[in-house]
Design goal:
heterotrimer, A mainly alpha (316), B mainly alpha (282), C alpha/beta (272), A: 316 residues, mainly alpha, MetI-like fold, 12 helices, C: 272 residues, Rossmann fold, 10 helices, 37% helix, 24% strand, globular, cell membrane (chain B)
Chain lengths: 316, 282, 272
């Protein structure tokens, strides 16, 4: 129990540091950039913008105050779950993000499923046949896969499966079939890293003395591989996975744009295009939160997979 | 047994290194020679020659505005590879000294610095780049600034870790007690150990930057038309996909081959260095 | 010898680069015999054991004959060979931490092993496992429900031995089983193995670098040096009438032998 509290505590600290540092950097950047949000708003409101209007808005949004004060107010707002409102749509940022979040998360999960379907067999092949042709196949697949731009892969998949074969729908997220192409694209794009990682870990595990002992007990090859070796290799995989949740959330952005997936990617790209700063800020905050929460989940899974950590007896 | 394992990785590592070099030669010669054999202006619009197929004049045909695709690809190659290299070199020039100093001095400053760095690093770099590029304004220069801002931290982190390991080793301790200056210890003993890892990382990173830049250009946050950056070309060609799919195929293959080249070089060099240092495994 | 259980004829092993690791081993172990295989590290003792078990790395070339109950182990298919392991030939390792997979409870691993070789229900397997654990003097229920790291070294080693003996093998290979244990626990373990040997008439191949141990427990000794057996015979004979210069050196340095460390260390197995 103490273990868990410690994990949660250190993750909270990470969240706080990350969000404070990042939001401060973005705040600073906003201040020194030429594109003035007030002008953005005035353009949107499409009226004969006068000097007076500008000043009124400056006051209203407190843009005339010192930066630290503005920043402080933003932080206080965040603590009250108020991320401000969009300069364009005037809607609360939190609402805008939360309504796009499910679509992004569901696509991410779809991508993860595909990722595992690809990475586990390829990684295992590479490790079991180390130095032979399946290993070469696995390594070159990983290398090539890591070299293909995900959005281009998506375009090619669309061309083959939707345009030529007319098998799968492309845009939107109406049915389960709509999930297939974006998930596959995302999963394939993410897989190479895990193929290599799993292969390396599994090779190390297969040479460990407990695997030799399992062989000496006459256990079958499959049994040794799947219930003994793979489990040992999953631990670093889980860690790695936790570290790349962020990569997943980043990678999903491009895929969303490509497939017109109504998720957060669309939201942030539009916000960037129109310099909608509160939305950008809120987006960073939410992503940071998601990253930390998923790291927390990974920490806990880690303890469950590796019972050695229960009583803190982390040998060697 | 150990020798056998090393041999396997040696051969595959070398194969990858050789493949990477071959690809590099290929890309370089296409970029240098291909452009001058069939000289076209990559920006020259020619509405009378839209969406042409391959011919002796336009080897890879023309795009929706009648511009020569090969000329644009070649221009894109120079641009993309150049930008990727510059971004990573700058990141290294900032990150490596910071990492060396932070790791060498250690102590509280180091601890606090690394805590902050970890906080930033656990944030997805793609999204950080979106945010920074977004705030500064979506164009190629700002994207590169964003990349450098994120990547130098990675180098600092890795170098610091390596320095900490090296510092434990005997010869560094000896050198330290032998009263040579800190700067000299770093230069003579630590830096040479760190360089191979930096080179491997850099090779792979240039590939990553190329992917990132093309992704950004594709979603409209990077290179803007009419710049023939490969991702931007793919974005341009989207509407003509049905009419002329090859318009979407060429830039993608260009990206893939270039990134593959850097990945092969990185992978090959890593095996090469690992074996030389007796680390055995791939 | 008519009661020969294991006969090794001219066994050679080469590494992939052609380096000879074992140079023609000949050895015979009778039923119920306690045979010691003694030599310094790197002399090929463990390699011999692994050749018998067929768990050498793929890239090593093995030649010769290993007859077990008249069947040549080297000619068996992988699957046939595998089914002998555990059931007919058991091994106990020096690195007791590596005897069990660290992420799986000991009981589960015992059941798994028993059920690989015997078609019995889970419940019956559990009973068998608990029984052998109790025989070694362990708190059977607790050990059964523990992960390896939750037990002390001596306990894990005894659990490993009881798991190995649970299937009543006809031959037991003990690879430096006492090296990683303190003196007291080491003696206990050997005593238990000897008792089991007498009760089940199981032959024991004791791999050790500890001459005193070999003298005390073995019936027959095989002295290995640089990949070859340089001398063998009844323990008494070797002890008092050894011929080979290496044996002489070994015997005279009885008290000054350095502690042997296993070359293929289990480093990194537990690291995360």
């Amino acid at each position: 129990m103490k273990q868990f509290l410690l994990i949660i505590g250190s993750r909270m600290l990470q969240l706080i540091i990350m969000v404070l540092v990042l939001s401060f950097i973005t705040f600073l950047l906003m201040k020194i950039t030429p594109g003035d949000p007030i002008r953005t708003m005035l353009n949107v409101e499409d009226m004969a913008a006068t000097k007076a209007d500008e000043e009124r808005l400056m006051k209203e949004y407190k843009f005339d105050r010192p930066i630290l004060e503005q920043y402080g107010e933003w932080v206080i707002g965040v603590l009250q779950l108020d991320l401000g409102e969009s300069l364009i749509s005037k809607r609360p940022v939190l609402d805008m993000i939360l309504e796009k979040l499910p679509a992004t998360l569901s696509l991410s999960i779809g991508g993860l499923v595909v990722l595992f379907i690809i990475a586990v067999p390829m990684g295992v092949l590479g490790a079991v046949y180390e130095g032979r042709w399946p290993d070469y196949l696995s390594r070159w697949t990983a290398l090539t896969g890591a070299s293909i731009p995900s959005f281009w892969l998506g375009i090619m998949l669309i061309y083959v499966f939707s345009v030529q074969l007319n098998l799968l729908p492309v845009m939107g997220k109406a049915t389960l079939a709509h999930f297939i192409l974006p998930s596959v694209t995302l999963g394939v794009a993410m897989a190479p890293l895990y193929i290599r990682l799993l292969r390396e870990r599994l090779i190390a595990t297969l040479q460990s003395s407990y695997i030799e002992a399992a062989k000496a007990r006459g256990l079958g090859k499959k049994r040794i591989l799947f219930s003994h070796a793979l489990r040992g290799s999953l631990i670093p995989l889980v860690t790695m996975f936790g570290l790349s949740i962020g990569g997943l959330l980043g990678g999903v952005t491009v895929i969303e744009i490509l497939f017109s997936w109504p998720g957060m990617g669309e939201l942030i790209v539009n916000a960037v295009m129109s310099r909608d700063y509160p939305v950008i800020q809120g987006y960073i905050l939410i992503i940071g939160f998601l990253v930390v929460v998923s790291n927390l989940v990974v920490d806990i899974m880690y303890v469950i997979i590796n019972p050695q950590l229960y009583n803190g007896k982390e040998s060697m | 047994m150990k020798t056998a394992v090393i041999r396997t990785s040696l051969s595959l590592g070398n194969v990858n290194l050789v493949l990477g070099l071959l690809l590099a030669v290929f890309i370089t010669s296409v970029t240098l020679i291909g452009g001058s054999l069939v000289p076209h202006d990559p920006f020259q619009v020619d509405m009378g020659n839209r969406l042409q197929n391959s011919s002796s004049i336009h080897w890879l045909g023309t795009d929706q505005l009648g511009r020569d695709i090969l000329a644009r690809l070649v221009y894109g190659a120079k641009l993309t590879i150049g930008l990727g290299t510059v971004a990573i070199v700058v990141a290294i020039l900032i990150g490596v000294p910071v990492g060396l100093i932070s790791g060498y001095i250690g102590g509280k400053v180091d601890a606090i610095l690394m805590r902050i760095v970890d906080g930033i690093l656990s944030f997805p770099d793609f999204i950080l780049a979106i945010a920074i590029a977004g705030i500064l304004g979506p164009n190629l220069t700002n994207l590169l600034i964003a990349i450098v801002l994120v990547r130098w931290i990675v180098y600092a982190r890795v170098v610091r870790g390596l320095v900490l390991t090296e510092k434990q080793k005997e010869y560094v301790l000896v050198s330290q007690t032998a009263n040579s200056s800190s700067l000299k210890t770093i230069r003579m003993h630590i830096l040479p150990q760190v360089i191979p890892d930096i080179i491997v990382m850099a090779a792979i990173d240039v590939g990553k930057v190329i992917l990132l830049v093309s992704s950004f250009s594709y979603i409209g946050l990077g290179a803007q038309p009419p710049i023939p950056e490969w991702g931007a070309m793919l974005n341009d060609g989207r509407s003509y996909f049905q009419v002329k799919p090859l318009l979407m195929v060429y830039p993608g293959i260009a990206i893939m081959l270039t990134v593959l080249c850097f990945n092969l070089l990185g992978d090959g060099l890593k095996s090469h260095y690992d074996i030389r240092r007796g680390r055995g495994r791939i | 010898m008519s009661n020969s259980l294991l006969t090794v004829n001219n066994l050679t092993i080469e590494s992939r680069s052609g380096e000879p690791l074992l140079k023609g081993i000949n050895m015979e172990i009778g039923r119920g015999e306690m045979a010691a295989l003694i030599g310094e590290s790197g002399s090929g003792k463990s390699l011999t054991a692994r050749a018998i078990l067929g768990i050498l790395p793929d890239e090593m070339k093995v030649n010769g004959q290993i007859l077990y109950k008249g069947r040549d182990l080297l000619k068996l298919s992988e699957n046939e060979h595998r089914l002998l392991l555990g059931k007919e030939i058991g091994i106990i390792f020096q690195d007791y931490r590596g005897s069990f997979t660290p992420y799986i409870k000991i009981g589960q691993q015992m059941i798994e092993t028993i059920r690989t070789h015997q078609r019995i229900s889970k419940k019956a397997a559990k009973e068998a496992a608990l029984l052998v654990l109790r025989e070694t003097g362990l708190e059977s229920e607790r050990v059964y429900n523990s992960y390896p790291f939750q037990l002390s070294g001596g306990q894990v080693q005894r659990a490993a031995i009881s798991m190995t003996l649970a299937l009543r093998p006809n031959m037991l290979i003990c690879d430096e089983v006492t090296t990683a244990l303190d003196l007291m626990n080491g003696e206990k373990v050997l005593k238990y193995i000897d008792k089991a040997r007498r009760e089940t008439d199981c032959a024991v191949m004791m791999i050790t670098h500890d001459l005193a141990q070999a003298y005390k427990w073995s019936d027959r000794m095989h002295v290995m040096y640089q990949g070859a057996i340089v001398e063998d015979g009844p323990t008494e004979q070797i002890r008092f009438h050894h011929q080979h210069p290496y044996t002489r050196k070994l015997c005279s340095s009885l008290l000054s032998l350095p502690k042997e460390r296993k070359a293929s260390s289990a480093e990194g197995v537990y690291s995360i």
